[in-house]
Amino acid sequence: MAAKVEFKREKDIPEHKVEFVKRVADKIKRSKTLLIASTNKLPSSQFHDIKKKLRGKADVLVGKRSLINRAIDTSKVEGISKLKESINADIAMFFSDLSPFELSGLLADNQSPSKAKAGDIAPEDIHVEPGPTDLVPGPAISELSGVGLKVAVEGGKLAVKQPAIIAKKGEVLKANVAGVMAKLGILPMKVGFEPLAAYSSEDHKVYVGIKIDKEATLQYLRESISKSKGFAISVKYVNSETIKYFIGKASLEEKALSAKIGITSEVVEEKKEETNDTNAKEDK
Q: What is the pTM assigned to this prediction?
């Protein structure tokens, strides 16, 4: 019978790592929500600024992936193990009594404008409006002209003469375009914590894809309302939103029909009066 070989760690686990795992596991048990967010490309200054703004609403912790996974396993909380699939090298943990979606919305509200860099994706069309700049004539003339801007010298400074779009939504920004935006003080990007996934202790579920874009959602709702009104009109569905359209349409059709058969509004009124008089005599 082969001898049993036992392996023993040459070094004990450092005490601070043990304490970290215990601390995180305890916070998991006591919190309604644990949200995992990416800290990729988030400057340290903005990290701490957002952390201060969330004080009283969420506790923020960072740590190594291996320790966070160990804390999740140690907690033995129902349904939370799937959260480990969303944990990578650059993440922060948010412990809160807010729901996952409330917390995600809070993170969306606390994003900050930032300069664009070469390789970034334009989040929207980048417009440059006409007007003066603080740039002096020199290399800046060719730099601004190189991205399609019409410029002229006014009062010793450069001025943009015509409105222009220097980048379309979804385009990969080139170095020269990013450079011009920086010179003109255009901050098209937003930096902040990007929610990846969250665990809710209320229903013991892990939610992924919980990043909330409030502006895009509102725009989607506006477009949906507009389309639904058009559909309601097309199927002749009458409600408080469509009744004005149908009344207006009926009025235009009445006028068009009257004009076609040569009946004026005065004649219509006379006929109404004659009808009323006849009805009155019959009643007598």
A: 0.61
| CATH classification number, 15-111+192-212, choose in 3.30.565.10, 2.30.130.40, 3.40.50.300, 3.30.70.1730 | 3.30.70.1730
Q: Report the DSSP pairing between strands 112-114 and 189-191.
A: antiparallel
pLDDT digits (tens, 9 = 90+) for 110-160: 888 888 999 999 989 999 999 999 999 999 999 999 999 999 999 999 999
Q: Which residue has the tokens 């009062």?
A: 155
Residues in contact with 84: Cβ distance below 8 Å, sequence separation at least 6, in sequence order? 69, 72
Tell me which DSSP letter residue 203 carries.
T
Place of tokens 């990969």: 172
CATH class of the structural domain 126-188: alpha beta
Residues 146, 177: Cα–Cα separation, whole Å: 9
Determine what percent of the chain falls in helix, strand and coil, rounding each to the nearest 5: 45, 20, 35
- Measured CA to CA, the distance from residue 170 to residue 187 in angstroms comes to 16
Q: Where are the alpha helices (DSSP H) in 12-56?
A: 15-30, 44-53
Beta bridge pairs of residue 198: 35, 207
**What are the two backbone dihedrals, phi and then psi, of residue 116, each rounded to the nearest 5 degrees?**
-90, 150
